[in-house]
Write a structure and sequence with these properties.
With about 160 residues, the protein is α+β, with helices and mostly antiparallel strands. It is about 35% helix and about 30% strand.
Length: about 160
Amino acid sequence: MHISGFMSNKVGVLLFFFVCYVKQSGCPLVFTCFFYPLVFSIDHDYPAFAHEQLAERASAGFPPFAFQAMLRAEAPEIAQALEFLGTAVTAAETPGAPDIMLYDPVPMRLARLKNRERAQLLVESRSRPALQHFLAGWMTQLYALKTPRELRWHLDVDPQEF
């Protein structure tokens, strides 16, 4: 095996193999994991680590190169939460917000918590002023929506987790 680049001299420390046998075919699968923060911490090179992380985030369109808000809803039934988020998307579709990207409503990773079903809707923009302008108008529309009494919702600007 040949590994090139800055990781070649650190392969012994950074490369872990996990071998699993697939029962049906009997062939081994090899998974490799590189721990990039470990590479930079070994060299004590924080500027290189920060530069690498920022480059990855820029190419993926993640913060701080994109700005996000998350509309979350919870109700006794997942259908109610998803219906509310779908209505919120419909209410948000105005021709004056071309810089805003609304993703589809989806159940949250931990969809059921304390007998309530939870769903979320991600809103994203490359411009913070455009996102703030959009959210100000959208909040007015959200408060005007008729919702079931047991449905709760909240808007999280710059969410820390999905």
